[in-house]
Amino acid sequence: MSSHHIVRDEQEPALLVDDASVLSFEFVELLLEWSPKLMVTSNAVDAVLKWGVKVDAVVARPEQLEELKPKLKPQSPVEVLLFETSDLLNSAYIVLQDQGHKAVNVLADTFNSSCLDTIRDYAEAMESVLYYNDQKWVYESRGAFQKWVNIGDVFGVHPIVQGTFFKTEGFYSNLDNEMYLEPFELTSEVEGKVRVQSNQKPFWLIETLKTDLYL
Q1: What are 115-138's pLDDT values in tens digits?
Q2: What are phi and psi of 94, to 5 degrees?
Q3: Parallel/antiparallel/unpaired status of strands 203-208 and 135-140
Q4: Which of 56, 120, 149, 159 could tie 153 with a disulfide, CB 3.0–4.6 Å?
């Protein structure tokens, strides 16, 4: 695929980085291919600068400004957004929403940040894809997922609320209106379309990334 594209920022998913270590750089390069708006929290600034790419905006706390100035000078112009909060990831979402973004790819640690709650809170306003541990997490707010897959592809399903029933198609051991409270895995039996559907209850769909597939 050519890496020369002209896309308006708000049409292309922004890339928000709170932890640069959660995704291999070969996958990061795919996310950067269409030159999205790159927003970084101060938690990840040092690591992202090592990528040698242009940063558009940094979200930080006011007391971090002086330390950031020399680091960001070679990136000029770069927008520095200061918030009096420890939850910089949520602050970044506020900015992206204010700027009219409808979609964002997020690099964050699911266990050391508010990312899961934040993605759920903004689900109606912004479509988010979370990348963590070389996996792709998608919040299915309407309780339905379908995709064209290869045989043997593995998906994790994380129920969120009690009373969630699942029906599946295209997997080994398909479910037929069965209730789950704990996370479970599904392995595709077909080369073709698979489907996971709940009784309109939200769930997380987790997919392991493959180096030979475009995200």
Answers
A1: 999 999 999 999 999 999 999 999
A2: -60, -45
A3: antiparallel
A4: 149
